[in-house]
Amino acid sequence: MGRFLDKVRDNHPAYRLEASDDGLMLIRRKGREKEFNRLARSLINDANAGVVVFPTPDEQGYERVFVVPL
């Protein structure tokens, strides 16, 4: 998850980070929809990230993104 981890950090203003045995869940914070959507789109489009990205869309873009390392 090297390049992915360069983009992700704990206590980010746009999302809450939850770790699991299988990967990381990024959950959008209220009022930060545009910023979170940009980050989610960046993760989805980054084919060289070494991760699989499972976004959950909603009416405002993306509500959460689950990231699993390859």
Element-by-element helix/strand order:
HEEHEE
Distance between the termini: 8 Å
Structural class: alpha+beta
Biggest sheet, spatial arrangement of strands: 1-2-4-3
Mean pLDDT: 87
Number of helices: 2
The share of residues in extended strands comes to 35-45%
Evaluate the radius of gyration. Answer: 11 Å
Percent helix:
25-40%
Ranges where pLDDT stays below 50 over 5 or more residues in a row are none
The biggest beta sheet is recorded as: 4 strands, antiparallel
* Apparent shape: globular
Count the beta strands: 4
Features:
4-stranded antiparallel sheet, 70 residues, 2 helices, alpha+beta, single chain
TL;DR?
The chain is an alpha+beta fold. It is built from 2 helices and 4 strands.
Write up this protein:
The model has no long low-confidence stretch (mean pLDDT 87). With 70 residues, the chain is an alpha+beta fold. The radius of gyration is 11 Å and the shape is globular. 27% of the residues lie in helices and 39% in strands. The protein has helices at residues 2-7, 33-45, and strands spanning 15-19, 24-28, 51-58, 61-69. It contains two helices and four strands, in the order αββαββ.
